[in-house]
Amino acid sequence: MTRLRFLITPTPVARGEVIENIQCMSCHADNENRLTGKRMAEVPAIFGMVYSKNTTQDWEKGIGNWTDGELIYFLRTGIRRDGSYALIMPQYPNMVDEDLQSVVAWLRSDRFPVQASKPEPQASEFSLVTKLLTHVLLKPLPYPQQFITFPDTTDQVAFGRYTADAIGDCCACHSSDLVDQDKIHPHRT
Ligand code: HEC
Ligand code: HEC
After folding, report:
1. Nearest CA to 61 among 129, 117, 133, 137?
2. Which residues contact 29 (CB under 8 A, 6 or more apart)?
3. Taking CB atoms and a 6 Å cutoff, what residues make up the pocket around ligand 1?
4. CA distance linking residue 93 with residue 175, whole number of Å
5. Are 51 and 37 contacting, i.e. CB atoms less than 8 angstroms apart?
6. What pLDDT digit, counting tens, does each position of 32-70 carry?
């Protein structure tokens, strides 16, 4: 099993924690701040009853037995290792490789939210609308064919744009159409 390929040193873990706080915690953390998953009450009812998943290090309920590669592939494309496709969970096609690796390093770290924990929410009950949309608009994304590297980190506008687009996924909720979006080129829609 390919594990711990990414260095779990303070720097990636700290960067991964920043990204988790911007992104993942709001959908996956329970009221004790553990990443056990929860009901996503704010998702519009038209999508159905949506629950996120346990992403703690628990081997059985969480992602303890996922490889680093399986996690990265999932975060880029939305496709799980069993081939199924996660809905509502954002994809991160433009996140810099090093940032994705930092997210994985954090998920593997000793931080409180990711420590193995058993509770898990029930499975989502996606509406017919959501299921139909997956065939046309909410499709899995292709895995990038090239490495994705940081924009010029001294250019604050470029770095802010990267953070908003590739990490914060701001367009997902703030663009004019909630469904018909180009995730790879968010400003085209
Ligand atoms: C907008 C809410 C939202 C955000 C933000 C989000 N997730 Fe999710 N995530 C979900 C939902 C909902 C599912 C379950 C989808 C399903 O049931 O098909 C999920 C599923 C997953 C899974 C699959 C678990 C399994 O057992 O199948 C992993 C791993 C995961 N998310 C990790 C992350 C990480 C890491 C981040 C941050 C980089 C993140 N998620 C951000 C909502 C979200
Ligand atoms: C999951 C959906 C979602 C995401 C992702 C999201 N937002 Fe929002 N945002 C909202 C909603 C809904 C509101 C309105 C909240 C309210 O009125 O209480 C809002 C409000 C705001 C406001 C306040 C606007 C005003 O007129 O009061 C700003 C600024 C903002 N968002 C910026 C961002 C940025 C920057 C990002 C990316 C880092 C982002 N949002 C990501 C859903 C989202």
Report:
1. 117
2. 35, 36, 38, 113
3. 23-24, 27-28, 40, 50, 52-53, 55, 63, 74-75, 80, 86-90, 103, 124
4. 17
5. yes
6. 999 999 999 988 899 999 999 999 999 999 999 999 999
Residue 63 CA: distances (Å) to CA of 3, 20, 57, 70, 117: 12, 15, 5, 10, 11
Residue 170 Cα to ligand 2 midpoint, Å, equals 7
**Nearest residue CA, atom 11 of ligand 1?**
52
Which residues form the pocket of ligand 2, taking CB atoms under 6 Å from any ligand atom? 164, 168-170, 172-174
* Confidence bin at 132 (pLDDT 50/70/90): confident
> What confidence score (pLDDT) does residue 8 get?
55
d(C-alpha 108, C-alpha 56), whole Å: 9
Please say if the pLDDT value at position 4 is more than 60: no
**How many percent of the chain have pLDDT more than 90?**
70
Q: Which domains does the chain have, with CATH numbers?
A: 10-142 (1.10.760)
Q: How far is the CA of 52 from the centre of ligand 1 (A)?
A: 6
Q: Residue whose CA is closest, atom 30 of ligand 1?
A: 55
Q: What is the DSSP letter of 165?
A: I
Q: State pLDDT tens for residues 74-118.
A: 999 999 999 999 988 999 999 999 999 999 999 999 999 999 999
Residue 144 backbone phi and psi in degrees, to 5 = -60, 145
